[in-house]
Amino acid sequence: MKKYIYDLETFKSFFLATFKLVGKDKWLEFEISDRRNDIKQLREFLNTKPKCIGFNNISFDYPVLHNTILSNNNNWTAEEIFEEVQSIISSDYSAIWNKDTKVPQLDLYKIWHYDNMARQTSLKWLEFAMRMESIEDLPYEPETVLNDDQKDEVISYCRNDILATEMFYNKSLDNIQFRVNMTKELGYNVMNYSDVKIGEYINRKTYEKISKRNYYDFKKLRTYRKSFNVNDLIPDYITFKSDYLNNFLNEIRQCSFKSDEDFERHLTFAGIEIKFAKGGLHSVDTPRDIKCDDDHILQEKDVGSMYPASIINGKYYPRHLGKEWYMGIKQLFDERSFKLKPQLKKLKKGSSEYKYINSKQEAFKLAMNGGGYGKTGSLYSWQYDPMVIMKTTFKGQLSLLMLIEQLYMAGCKIISANTDGVVVYYNKAKKLEIDELHKQWEKDTQYILEDTNYSRIVFRDVNNYIAFIIDEDGNHLKYKFKGVYEIDRDYHKNHSKRIVALSAANYFINNIEPQISLKQHLNGYEYSFAENYGIYDFCIGSKMKGNNRLYRRVTHLANQVDYKLGKTNRYYVSKEGDQLIKILPPLEKNYLTKTDKFKEKNPNQMDIFDIIEDDVLVEPKNRETNIEAGWKCTLFNKYVDEEYDLSYNYYIQEINKLIDLE
After folding, report:
1. Is residue 19 a contact partner of residue 50, using CB atoms and an 8 Å limit?
2. What is the DSSP string of 286-354?
3. In the chain, pLDDT over 90 holds for what percent of residues?
4. Alpha-carbon distance 505 to 527, whole Å?
5. What sign has the CA pseudo-torsion 177, 180, 185, 189?
6. Per the domain annotation, does 144 fall within a domain?
């Protein structure tokens, strides 16, 4: 079956469906307009059932084709298709049921879970993240009646979108192969499922098998909780030796909180400040650079698979599902830990068998975490019972607090703590004692601790750091970049001014001053820990949401002109250039009169019946902000190989924010 990347462009007077054969320079373009009508050819092509790959195609592109081109009506006009598009856009659910789909679909938007609010990402933002040579926005509003030149411009724009989709498809091949493997393993089509959805499906099938219940018998069941008594969330084995933590434990035992209410405590213990909340604990860290000498050990002790381990050890389960749910989590945990992972060690890494087994163990991990534990907190899931979430998090963080206390009393310096781990610094002479403490804590809590050794950690705070990871013999293994120091991010995250994190890392790792990194970068400077992407590493991405708009403000002598830009733009900060101005709609929802405005500012100075003379409607004004205040910018939506007018002072200022730990 041939694979095609495809995209649609839908205007009131112009419909375009473009397909590109994957990996080939072969394009098929079907147009419905006043100059061409390719509806018959398009229908014939779709009836060959090509495998169609797109971005958000399941909820938009395919429903358009399904409801128009593939329907019984043979004479659709561009305007009629446009009306159908408006109906699809306004509907709550537009996707066609899988059993009714006539042309196979692969949706990269679904696979990467970009339909999740927290990860929502546009193809334009991916063009920026992938460093495409050209970032283009739709050149005309959909209502525009296009002339022939404008139609050709839209065709060119559509081709650029398809090239972007194909680039992202090539970056998604491992994710796609994972779904091929799991579809084969499960005997069920999960090709367009997100990782979490695959995990939830595995968890569901495991539960069905163990409980002997049919999905439709428990699909709509939920357990709702109005409030929680903290005493019910504390495991029996939780004990402390210090008066301070015992007083804390006794205090919270008396507390309760509602489902929608925060629960938070701040502790000062073991030389650190700890924020203890219902979602987890973490230390409140100060910026510092911690180096380990030859006589000491700098080490992180992490709880392995904390959430599923908490569920299994605590025997937690949603009340409406019974203990079979917890038994399912345990079954997945045991098979992954004692069968699949040991099996991987015997296989050649990269072989087809290795990849298949690895896919399976990764899927089981998803089933236990996002597809199991995570879904007990989702109202949309059949697993919903927030008591599981609360018991799991309280068990984990109280156990971690026990570990912190024991390590501190054994002479360790507590560096940092976060959710499922603690970083400690101690003399090598104490290693046997710490190892014994480690084992006893594991025995008491039934968790497994995993050690990671560091030679150095550059901390900005608990979520932003560079860690230098070593083996037990002190040999360097790799670097871990977290938060603002992260260099290569997930595609949906912000990839702006990558040079800042690169230069900060080069400063701490190789003692190279930022000015040198900046000026050598475009000469092809080779970093030992990351790739050099040239001018793209200086670029900044800007995306406008809702009614926000971006303008390029050009000022010459006394004249000032604003040029409207598209929704997504790429630029770098330059010595010469223009201002980039973001225009936001007024805060006021409605027009106000002068009287209304006066009352708003002077509520006690005016009688309600008084009216200002010549009372008229006052139009609320747009708000504007300079997105790089005090600096000039050069747009870089299309790659140009030239001498770049970079403002190094701007980038040095940004780098200094990461390397100044005072």
Report:
1. yes
2. --EEEE--TTEEEEEEEETTHHHHHHHHHT---TTT-HHHHHHHHHHHHHIIIIIHHHHHTSPTTSHHH
3. 87
4. 10
5. positive
6. yes
**Contact (Cβ atoms closer than 8 angstroms) between residue 92 and residue 462:** no
Whole-number Å distance between alpha carbons of 160 and 27: 12
Instruction: Answer whether residue 538 is part of any domain.
Output: no
- 4 neighbors 30 (Cβ within 8 angstroms): no
**Three-class SS state of 563:** strand
Q: Is the alpha carbon torsion for 36, 37, 43, 48 positive or negative?
A: negative
Cα distance between residue 210 and residue 163, in whole Å: 47
Domain boundary at 171, 198, 225, which?
171
pLDDT digits (tens, 9 = 90+) for 95-151: 899 999 999 999 999 999 999 888 999 999 999 999 999 999 888 888 999 999 999
Q: In the chain, how many H helices and how many E strands?
A: 20, 26
Residue 606, pLDDT > 80, answer no
Q: Give the model confidence (pLDDT) of 369-379 as tens digits.
A: 999 999 999 99
Asked if residue 30 lies in contact with residue 17, where contact means CB atoms within 8 angstroms, the answer is: yes
* Domain final residue pick, 128, 155, 171: 171
Helix (H, G, I), strand (E, B) or coil at 178: helix
Looking at the domain assignment, is residue 421 inside a domain?
no
Average pLDDT over residues 230-258: 97
Number of domains in the chain: 2
Domain containing residue 43: CATH number: 3.30.420.10
Per-residue model confidence (pLDDT) at position 617:
56
pLDDT one-digit tens code per residue, 380-430 = 999 999 999 999 999 999 999 999 999 999 999 999 999 899 999 999 999
Q: Residue 375: exposed, middle, or buried by beta-carbon count in 10 A (0-12, 13-18, 19+)? A: buried
Whole-structure pTM value: 0.90
Residue ranges of the alpha helices (H) in 543-603?
594-601
Q: What is the spatial distance between Cα 597 and Cα 615, in angstroms, rounded to a whole number?
A: 11
CB atoms within 10 A of CB 303: 23
Q: What is the pLDDT of residue 589?
A: 56
Q: Is residue 30 part of a domain?
A: yes
Structural domain boundaries enclosing 150:
3-171
- DSSP code string of 279-304: TEEEE----EEEE--TTEEEEEEEET
For the cut 50, the answer to whether the pLDDT of residue 609 exceeds it is: no
Tell me the pLDDT of the chain averaged across its residues: 93
